[in-house]
Amino acid sequence: MVEPAGWSHVTKVDPDKGMSEEKAHDVAESGTDAVVVGGTQGVTRDKVLSVLSSIEADVPVVVEPSNPASAVGAGDGLLVPTVLNADAVDWVVGIHKEWARANEVDWSNVVGEGYIVMNPESAVGRLTGADTSLGHEEAAAYAEVADGLFDLPVVYVEYSGTFGDMEVVGAVNDAVEDTTVFYGGGVDGYDRAKEAAAHTDCVVVGDAVHDEGVGALRETVQGVRDA
User: Fold this and answer.
1) How many Å apart are CA 218 and CA 202, to the nearest integer?
2) Domain boundaries along the sequence of the chain
C-alpha cells in the first residue's frame, strides 16, 4: 500500500487532458513525491490506462478514480475519494457501494481520502453539490470526523482552480491527529506553493502542470521544500 503520510508534494495528472511521454518523464523527475492520475470530467478507463502507460517513475504513481470505471487495477495503488460535504449520499458512499458490488476490490491497495470541496465553481463542486459555504470551524469539524471516526488516511481540502483560504486549510490541519492533510487549488508557482505548504502536510499541483508546464511544477516543488 502507498503511504501518503510521507508526501509533501503531489502532482495530479488529469487523464482527460492527456500527457505526452516526454512531459510525463519530466513530471516524474521533477522532485515531486508522488503522481496522482485523476480528474472529474471525461475520465474513462482507457484514458487512465493511457496516462499510466506514459509514466515511468521512481515515485509512487496512484490512480484517484472519479467513477467505478476509472478505478483500474494498475499503478501503485488507489486513492479513493469520498466527498464529506456533498449534498447527496452517492458522493459520500453510494458510488463506492456500487463499485464494491460490481467488482472484486483489493482493499489492501486502497487508501481512503476525505474531500472537503470549497470552490462552488469547480467541476467537482458542481458535480457533487458540495456545501462550499463552510467556515473554518465547520471545515475543521469535517476533518476531525474523518480522522477520529472514519480513520481516513487523507483529508483533501480542495479549492480546485483558485487559491484557497489558508485560515480554513490551517484549521483543518490543526483539527487532525493521524490524518495527512492535502491542499489543492491555484498553486501555480513558488510563492503560492510555499504559502500553502506552511498550512498543510501536502500540496497538490494539477492545473499548473497542464497549463504552465514542468518548469512551473519544479518551482512549486522548490517552494514546498523551502517552507
Assistant:
1) 15
2) 4-226
pLDDT in tens, 5-35: 999 999 999 999 988 889 988 999 999 999 9
CATH number of the domain at 4-226, please? Answer: 3.20.20.390
One-letter-per-residue 3-state SS of 104-126:
CCCHHHEEEEEEEECCCCCHHHH
Give me the chain's average pLDDT, please.
94
Residue-by-residue DSSP string for 120-183 = TTSHHHHHHT------HHHHHHHHHHHHHTS--SEEEEE-TTS---HHHHHHHHHH-SSSEEEE
- Are residues 26 and 214 in contact, defined by beta-carbon separation less than 8 angstroms? yes
Would you call 99 exposed, middle or buried from its count of C-beta atoms within 10 A (0-12, 13-18, 19+)? middle
Q: What are the pLDDT digits (tens) for 38-71?
A: 988 888 999 999 999 999 889 999 999 988 888 8
Cβ atoms 97, 67 nearer than 8 A? no
